[in-house]
From TrEMBL:
Gene3D superfamilies: 3.10.20.30, [2Fe-2S]-binding domain. Transmembrane segments: none annotated. Residues 1-77 form the 2Fe-2S ferredoxin-type domain. This is Isoquinoline 1-oxidoreductase, alpha subunit. It comes from Roseibium denhamense. PANTHER family: BLR6218 PROTEIN, OXIDOREDUCTASE WITH IRON-SULFUR SUBUNIT. The keyword Metal-binding applies. Keywords: 2Fe-2S, Iron, Iron-sulfur, Metal-binding, Oxidoreductase. InterPro entries: 2Fe-2S-bd, 2Fe-2S-bd_dom_sf, 2Fe-2S_ferredoxin-like_sf, 2Fe-2S_ferredoxin-type, 2Fe2S_fd_BS, Beta-grasp_dom_sf, Diverse_Oxidoreductases.
Length: 153
């Protein structure tokens, strides 16, 4: 079955089983390996992408449910919030091993696109389910606050 999606601003037709997870279509069919496989049950956040601007877990989102959707991956995330998050991540040296970071960045970008000055509680809610095995949670929170400050400037 063919499914047409707009991925990172470009119309792409995938020849994929409709019950195939988006994660594998991105990685295996399109070669977009920035989106990571973590757990396969939508519990870790490593596979987070945006569907029409909202963060979703691509390991549990089936290609057949996405016809006509606009998908943004870590390779294509852009805009004011994304730029601020990426700059803050670099300045504060957030990653340790880095494996979870694409999912963390995608979740943080979605948060800041909706909430320009998040509280710690807002951050906790938005980032819940994004697991960092290296436990850089304090740096992640600090970077989100720094990114929010950058967006205000």
């Amino acid at each position: 079955m063919s499914v047409t999606l707009k991925i990172n601003g470009e119309s792409r037709t995938l020849d994929a089983d409709p019950d195939s997870p988006l994660l594998w279509a991105l990685r295996d069919e399109l070669g977009m390996t920035g989106t990571k496989f973590g757990c396969g049950i939508a519990a870790c956040g490593a596979c987070t992408v945006h569907w029409d601007g909202m963060p979703i877990r691509s390991c549990q989102t089936m290609v057949g449910d996405l016809e006509g959707a606009e998908i943004t991956t870590i390779e294509g995330v852009n805009g004011k919030a994304a730029k601020a998050v990426q700059e803050a991540w670099n300045e504060l040296d957030v990653p340790q091993c880095g494996y979870c970071q694409s999912g963390q960045i995608m979740a943080a970008t979605a948060l800041l696109a909706e909430t320009s000055k998040p509280t710690d509680e807002d951050i906790d809610i938005a980032m819940d389910g994004n697991v960092c095995r290296c436990a850089t949670y304090a740096r992640i929170r600090k970077a989100i606050h720094a990114a929010a400050d950058k967006m205000e400037a």
